[in-house]
């Protein structure tokens, strides 16, 4: 371990494996600027809170029910109750599903915002947005059961795209407020998975209804059966994964284009010394798309030159970064844990934020430099800081608002002082939507997941693992993602990645086709070389985890690997998660039948009964379950063991014997 003279600050080499982050942490500490890494050293976690047994539901508390060793090992009876008599099981389950509700509300409300803009576009009220993928529009209409053709003179012809978009937008928006029935998108799942949801009564009726019901059930004195509480958490999660998030991904594809492979650069070295640096940060691409569009206008380029700059660099942070990367190849400045460090370079004229994962500390750090901290959403303002500016973004005047933001940044360029930009960057290949994967596996006319299934069946590919999720300052930055993923691809698992996990892969050199020869096992490497893909496929933002669901569904449909998602030799993992969104995501994967490995524990240890339900009983109900292992390499091997169990159940755990066949043998097969 490296030594430091100040125990109140982080040791850079101990908290990150990323060279740019290490350099910038040293620089920040030399300037006396505190970052989240330093705060993680100073602030210890609450033991009661991490166990999930602190109840703050009513004003008679907080009631804390610490877990003793005797209760944990079963040597003494568990008699813990809160003031109202609430048991640890009730308290832990209530706390957990409230986190699920918050996470699902966050992604689904993002989806609502996208849908409202989509509808305004269809009504010709938001003129700066348009339909960029008409093919996807017609596919989405089909998911809603909306006819895509109309009869004219006895002949079926395609419906006008604007008329179709209007009905799609109205139908999509109705899914949030729907009170009865079920969400349209649920039937996109394999039939056996859908039937399992029907059997256990977890099909969501409407997105908002399930979130509100969680808040009601967890009020003091309502639902007091942990199994019933967790059942509602499962139902709410599906409203997000197969509802709000999936619809948001689809409608963003229609508005901005479905991602296909493109190249980009990542890390703080993408910032420029002679251009206006604008960082777009958050999760909602409605703002960033317009900024990317506006900076290329001649008038905006001229405005930059008038301020002494040689143009603009628009780069991203967090999942807004992934959104503009996969569609435009725009560079990524960094991930969640690097947002303060970007400002500390002294080179950022404007940090433009929308929603989610934006640290309030950015406002304070910006005051130490010239950076303008610009909030854009009415639900996400910041009260702190003389450098804080709010520009209320409106879809009806989107391009004008983008220009306003860009001018604020350009006007700030002459105020720039000393800069400290690390040179670190990495190249990556990104943009593997479900449609892009299908194209890579068969081209325009023969696109299919069958080649992927064939290579899973023949053993070249051992399984599929979605490794996703946030960074967390309580574990080493990037290391947990990179170590796990390297172990998985070394053992012939193809990895699908999103969010900050995808960024960690980009910085580690795992997102290029040539990386397969370096990191992948022989079977996976052969497939990657043949198809021309990396061993780790960047699928987009954390919202786009729904793409992993649709890709897995395509695998089931292609045949040979079972009838439902729970049959697949597949798993999910979030080794460094930190947000409530991640819990909502993890639960919708579990409820969809996927084994989900996490590296940061859920706050459930205070109730061994609830812990057992999540890690064992849920598998019987939904086919998926939660698992926890903090060591990323050990976690990878637990995932591999799970995949091997699934391969054995499918009868593909042994290499198939090669048999030379004559014409008579072939005729027998054809006759059968």
Tell me about this structure.
By secondary structure, the chain is of the alpha/beta class. The protein folds into 4 domains: 12-47, no CATH class; 88-256, Substrate Binding Domain Of Dnak, Chain:A, Domain 2, CATH 1.20.1270.30; 268-415, Rossmann fold, CATH 3.40.50.2030; 429-650, Rossmann fold. The protein has a 6-stranded parallel β-sheet, with helices on both faces. α14 (318-328) links the parallel β7 and β8 (332-334). α6 packs across α26 (580-591) and α12 (285-295) crosses α17. It is globular and about 70 Å long. The model is unreliable at 1-5 (pLDDT under 50).
Number of helices: 29
Residue runs with pLDDT of under 50 for 5 or more positions: 1-5
Q: What level of helicity do the residues show?
A: 40-55%
Number of domains: 4
Calculate the terminal CA-CA distance, rounded to whole Å.
Answer: 66 Å
* Spatial strand order of the main sheet: 8-7-6-9-10-11
Q: Quote the CATH topology of the largest domain.
A: Rossmann fold
Strand content: 5-15%
Structural class: alpha/beta
Sheet with the most strands? 6 strands, parallel
Average of the residue pLDDT scores: 95
CATH class annotation of the largest domain: Alpha Beta
**Rg result:** 25 Å
> From the coordinates shown, what is the CATH architecture of the largest domain?
3-Layer(aba) Sandwich
Question: What's the count of strands?
Answer: 18
């Amino acid at each position: 371990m490296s030594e430091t003279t100040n125990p109140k600050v982080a040791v850079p080499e101990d908290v990150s494996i990323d060279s740019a982050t290490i350099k910038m942490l040293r620089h920040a500490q030399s300037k006396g600027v505190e970052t989240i890494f330093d705060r993680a050293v100073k602030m210890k976690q609450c033991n009661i809170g991490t166990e999930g047994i602190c109840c703050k539901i009513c004003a008679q508390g907080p009631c804390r029910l610490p877990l003793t060793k005797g209760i944990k090992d079963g040597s003494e009876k568990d008699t813990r109750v809160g003031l109202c008599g609430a048991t640890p099981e009730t308290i832990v389950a209530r706390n957990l599903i409230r986190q699920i509700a918050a996470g699902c509300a966050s992604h689904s409300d993002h989806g609502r915002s996208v849908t409202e803009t989509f509808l305004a576009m269809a009504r010709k009220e938001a003129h700066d947005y348009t339909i960029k993928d008409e093919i996807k529009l017609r596919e989405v209409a089909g998911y809603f059961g909306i006819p895509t053709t109309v009869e004219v003179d006895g002949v079926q012809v395609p419906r006008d795209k604007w008329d179709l978009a209007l009905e799609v937008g109205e139908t999509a928006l109705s899914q949030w407020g729907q009170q009865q029935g079920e969400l349209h998108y649920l039937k996109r799942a394999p039939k056996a998975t859908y039937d399992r949801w029907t059997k256990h009564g977890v099909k969501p009726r409407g997105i908002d209804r399930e979130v509100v019901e969680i808040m009601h059930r967890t009020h003091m004195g309502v639902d007091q059966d942990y199994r019933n509480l967790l059942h509602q958490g499962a139902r709410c999660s599906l409203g997000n994964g197969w509802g709000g998030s999936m619809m948001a991904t689809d409608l963003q594809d229609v508005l901005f284009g479905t991602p296909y492979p493109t190249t980009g650069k990542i890390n703080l070295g993408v910032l420029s010394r002679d251009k206006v640096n604008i960082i777009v940060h958050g999760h909602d691409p409605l703002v960033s798309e317009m900024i990317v569009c506006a900076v290329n206008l001649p008038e905006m380029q001229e405005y930059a030159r008038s301020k002494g700059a040689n143009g603009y660099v628009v780069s991203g942070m967090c999942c807004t970064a992934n959104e503009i990367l996969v569609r435009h190849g725009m560079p990524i400045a960094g991930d969640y844990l690097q947002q303060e460090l970007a400002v500390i370079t002294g080179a950022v004229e404007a940090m433009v934020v929308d929603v989610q994962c934006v640290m309030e500390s950015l406002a304070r750090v910006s005051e130490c430099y010239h950076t303008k901290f610009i909030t854009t959403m009415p639900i996400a303002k910041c009260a702190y800081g003389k450098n804080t500016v709010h520009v209320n973004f409106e879809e009806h005047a989107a391009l004008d608002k983008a220009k306003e933001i860009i001018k604020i940044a350009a006007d700030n360029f002459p105020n720039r002082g000393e800069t400290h930009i690390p040179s670190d960057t990495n190249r990556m290949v990104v943009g593997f939507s479900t449609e892009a994967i299908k194209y890579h596996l068969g081209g325009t006319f023969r696109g299919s997941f069958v080649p992927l299934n064939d290579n899973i069946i023949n053993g070249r590919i051992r399984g599929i693992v979605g490794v996703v999720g946030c960074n967390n300052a309580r574990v080493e930055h990037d290391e947990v993602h990179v170590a796990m993923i390297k172990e998985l691809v070394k053992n012939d698992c193809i990895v699908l990645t999103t969010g900050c996990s995808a960024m960690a892969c980009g910085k580690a050199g795992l997102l290029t086709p040539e990386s397969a020869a370096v990191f992948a096992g022989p079977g996976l490497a052969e497939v990657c070389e043949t198809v021309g893909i990396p061993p780790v496929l960047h699928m987009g933002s954390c919202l786009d985890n729904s793409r992993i669901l649709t890709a897995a569904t395509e695998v089931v449909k292609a045949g040979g690997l079972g009838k439902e998602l729970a049959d697949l030799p597949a798993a999910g993992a979030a080794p460094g998660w930190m947000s409530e969104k991640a819990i909502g995501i993890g639960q919708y994967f579990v409820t969809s039948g996927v084994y989900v490995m996490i590296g940061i524990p859920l706050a459930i240890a205070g109730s061994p009964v609830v812990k057992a339900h999540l890690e064992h009983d849920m598998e019987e109900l939904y086919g998926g379950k939660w698992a926890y292992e903090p060591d990323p390499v050990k976690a990878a091997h637990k995932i591999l063991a799970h995949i091997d169990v699934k391969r054995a159940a499918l009868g593909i755990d042994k290499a198939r014997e090669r048999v030379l066949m004559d014409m008579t043998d072939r005729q027998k097969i054809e006759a059968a």
